[in-house]
C-alpha cells in the first residue's frame, strides 16, 4: 500500500512538472511570435559608379556615392567609353546604410551577397567558368564629417555561374545573363554607424585578369543584418534563462553530493549537459553592444557545437545505462564506439568553421567556397561529419530498440511481484518511456519548425494579429531545449526521502534507508538497486 501511494505521488508530481514546462514552452513560442519582430532584415543596395582619376589610385581617399563630398559619377559604361575613361578608373561605391539611416550595435552582424548585372555582347561574351577579380575595401566612421577609417582591404576572386536563355545572336545583345548570387562579405559586429564599400574591377589583359567576364552593367549588394528588436528579445531570454538553469544545476549537484556514494556516469553526463546549456545561455552578447567584438559569430558557433555534442552523447549514455542486460556500465570507456563519431564529426565541423569564420576575422571578404581547393576541403569536412552523424543515429536507434526490447522482457516478471514492488518498477519504466517520448517530441519539434520557417513567408496573419514564424522558431526551440535540460536535472536528481523501516522492508523490498530515484542504474552504498539486481540476475540466466 505504501509503495502504491509513493508511486501515485511521484506520477502526480511528474504530471504537474510536465504541465508547468508545457506552459513555459508555449510562452517561449509566443514571445517570438507576438513580441519579437522578424529575426533579420534584407536591404538591397545599388552601387554608384564613381570615377577615380587620382594617380596610382591612392586608397587614402574614399569615394562616396552621395552626400556633400560625393564622387564624380558615371551614368553608364557608354558614357565611360565616350569620355575615354578606362575600367581601372571606375569604382563601384556603396554606402551602408541608406541615406538618413544609421547602423546600430543591436544589429549584431552584417552579411552581404553580390549580384552582377552582366549584359550579352557579341564582341565581349562571358566565357565558360569565368572568374571575376574584385579589389574591395571597407571603411567606417561614426559621424558625417569625420574621415573614413579602413577596416579591411583584399583582392578576392569569385567564380561566375551564369545562364543565358536566349540565342547568342546580334538581336540578343543587351539582354542580361541570369547569374547566381555571390558571397561577398560577413562581419560579426556592427559597432559603427556608417560603412563605406569601394569595389574595383582591375583589368589586366596580359595576366588575364577580368578578361572574358562579359559586359558588367551594375553591381548590386544585398545586406542582411539582425533586427534590433529581435536582438533585445533574444538577450532578455538569455538573461532570464541563465539564472534558471544555474539554480537547478546547483540544486541538482547538491543533491548528488549529499549522497553517501560517488556520482555515477549518468548523473555526471546530465550535469555536464547543464554546464553546456549554461555556456550557451550566458548573455555575453550584452558586451557586444559596447565593444567591437567581431568574433561573436564564431564564438556562438563553438558554444552551440559543444551543447549539441554533449546532447548527442547524453542520449547514447542514457540509453546505454538503461540496457538492463549490459554488465559493464557506469564507465565512459564503454561508449567509445558510439561517442567516437560524435567527437570526429564535431571536430570536422569545428575545423570547417575555423577555415570560414576564423579567417573572416582578418578578412571579412573571404569565403572558403570561392576556390576549388577550398570547396573540396569544405565538402570533405561536411561529408565526414555527415557520415559520423549517420553512424551515430544508427547506433542510437539500435540502442533504443534494445532498451525497449529488454524492458518488454523484464515486464513479464512484474506480475509475480507484490503490488507495491510492481508499481515501483512500473514507475521506473514509465519515467524512462516518458523521457524518451519527450526527447522524440523535442527533436521532432525542432525539425518541423525549421521546415516551416523555411517554406513560409516568415509570418502568419490572423485578422489583426501577426505571428512571426521565424522568430517563434528561434525563441521556441531555444526555450524548449532549456526546459528539456531543466526537466532532466529535476527528474533525475537523487531523492533523499526515507519512508521508514517498515515501508522499506515491506512490500517495496528495498533495504532500510535506501534512497528512491528515477534512474535504474544508480548503485548505492548497500549495493545495487532492485531493478539492477533483477536485470543482472535475468541476464546471467
TrEMBL record:
Gene coding for it: Wls
GO annotation, cellular component aspect: Golgi membrane
Membrane topology designation: Multi-pass membrane protein
Keywords in alphabetical order: Developmental protein, Golgi apparatus, Membrane, Transmembrane, Transmembrane helix, Wnt signaling pathway
Domain of life per record: Eukaryota
Matching Pfam families: WLS-like_TM, WLS_GOLD
Annotated PANTHER family: INTEGRAL MEMBRANE PROTEIN GPR177, PROTEIN WNTLESS HOMOLOG
Occurrences of domain Wntless GOLD (ranges): 48-226
Lineage: Eukaryota, Metazoa, Chordata, Craniata, Vertebrata
Family in the record: Belongs to the wntless family.
GO biological process: intracellular protein transport; Wnt protein secretion; Wnt signaling pathway
Name under which the protein is recorded: WLS protein
InterPro entries per UniProt: WLS-like_TM, WLS_GOLD, Wntless
Location in or out of the cell: Golgi apparatus membrane
Main location: Golgi
Gene Ontology molecular function terms on file: Wnt-protein binding
Domain Wntless-like transmembrane, residue spans: 227-496
Parts of the chain that traverse the membrane: 233-253, 265-284, 296-318, 339-359, 379-407, 428-452, 472-493
Keyword Coiled coil: no
Amino acid at each position: 500500500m505504501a509503495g502504491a501511494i509513493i508511486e501515485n505521488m511521484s506520477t502526480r508530481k511528474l504530471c504537474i512538472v510536465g504541465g508547468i514546462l508545457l506552459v513555459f514552452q508555449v510562452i517561449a513560442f509566443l514571445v517570438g511570435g507576438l513580441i519579437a519582430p522578424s529575426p533579420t532584415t534584407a536591404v538591397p543596395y545599388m552601387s554608384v559608379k564613381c570615377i577615380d582619376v587620382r594617380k596610382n589610385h591612392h586608397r587614402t581617399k574614399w569615394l562616396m556615392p552621395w552626400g556633400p563630398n560625393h564622387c564624380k559619377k558615371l551614368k553608364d559604361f557608354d558614357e565611360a567609353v565616350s569620355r575615354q575613361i578606362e575600367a581601372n578608373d571606375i569604382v563601384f561605391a556603396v554606402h551602408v546604410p541608406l541615406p538618413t539611416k544609421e547602423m546600430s550595435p543591436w544589429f549584431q552582424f552584417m552579411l552581404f551577397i553580390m549580384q552582377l548585372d552582366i549584359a550579352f555582347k557579341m564582341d565581349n561574351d562571358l566565357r565558360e567558368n569565368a572568374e571575376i577579380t574584385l579589389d574591395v575595401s571597407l571603411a567606417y566612421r561614426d559621424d558625417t564629417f569625420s574621415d573614413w577609417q579602413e577596416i579591411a582591404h583584399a583582392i578576392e576572386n569569385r567564380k561566375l555561374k551564369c545562364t543565358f536563355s536566349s540565342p547568342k545572336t546580334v538581336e540578343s545583345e543587351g539582354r542580361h545573363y541570369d547569374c547566381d548570387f555571390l558571397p561577398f562579405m560577413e562581419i560579426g559586429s556592427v559597432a559603427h554607424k556608417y560603412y563605406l564599400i569601394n569595389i574595383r574591377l582591375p583589368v589586366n589583359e596580359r595576366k588575364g585578369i577580368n578578361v572574358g567576364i562579359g559586359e558588367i552593367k551594375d553591381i548590386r549588394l544585398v545586406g542582411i543584418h539582425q533586427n534590433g528588436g529581435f536582438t533585445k528579445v533574444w538577450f532578455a531570454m538569455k538573461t532570464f534563462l541563465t539564472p534558471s538553469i544555474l539554480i537547478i544545476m546547483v540544486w541538482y549537484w547538491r543533491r548528488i553530493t549529499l549522497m553517501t556514494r560517488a556520482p555515477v556516469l549518468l548523473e555526471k553526463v546530465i550535469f555536464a549537459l547543464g554546464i553546456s546549456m549554461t555556456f550557451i545561455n550566458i548573455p555575453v552578447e550584452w558586451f557586444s553592444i559596447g565593444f567591437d567584438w567581431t568574433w561573436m559569430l564564431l564564438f556562438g558557433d563553438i558554444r552551440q557545437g559543444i551543447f549539441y555534442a554533449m546532447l548527442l552523447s547524453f542520449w547514447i549514455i542514457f540509453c546505454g545505462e538503461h540496457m538492463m542486460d549490459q554488465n559493464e556500465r557506469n564507465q565512459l570507456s564503454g561508449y567509445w564506439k558510439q561517442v567516437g563519431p560524435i567527437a570526429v564529426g564535431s571536430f570536422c565541423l569545428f575545423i570547417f568553421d575555423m577555415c570560414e569564420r576564423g579567417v573572416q576575422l582578418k578578412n571579412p571578404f573571404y569565403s572558403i567556397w570561392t576556390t576549388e581547393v577550398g570547396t573540396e576541403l569544405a565538402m570533405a569536412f561536411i561529408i565526414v561529419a555527415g557520415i559520423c552523424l549517420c553512424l551515430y543515429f544508427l547506433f542510437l536507434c539500435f540502442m533504443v530498440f534494445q532498451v525497449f526490447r529488454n524492458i518488454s522482457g523484464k515486464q513479464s516478471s512484474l506480475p509475480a511481484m507484490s503490488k507495491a514492488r510492481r508499481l515501483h518498477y512500473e514507475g521506473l519504466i514509465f519515467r524512462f518511456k516518458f523521457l524518451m517520448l519527450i526527447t522524440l517530441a523535442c527533436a521532432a519539434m525542432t525539425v518541423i519548425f525549421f521546415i516551416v520557417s523555411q517554406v513560409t513567408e516568415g509570418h502568419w496573419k490572423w485578422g489583426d494579429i501577426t505571428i512571426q514564424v521565424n522568430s517563434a522558431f528561434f525563441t521556441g526551440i531555444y526555450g524548449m531545449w532549456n526546459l528539456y535540460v531543466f526537466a532532466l536535472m529535476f527528474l533525475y536528481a537523487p531523492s533523499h526521502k526515507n519512508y521508514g523501516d517498515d515501508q522499506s522492508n515491506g512490500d517495496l523490498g528495498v533495504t532500510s534507508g535506501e534512497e528512491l530515484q528515477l534512474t535504474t542504474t544508480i548503485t548505492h552504498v548497500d549495493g545495487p538497486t532492485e531493478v539492477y539486481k533483477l536485470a543482472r540476475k535475468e541476464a546471467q540466466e
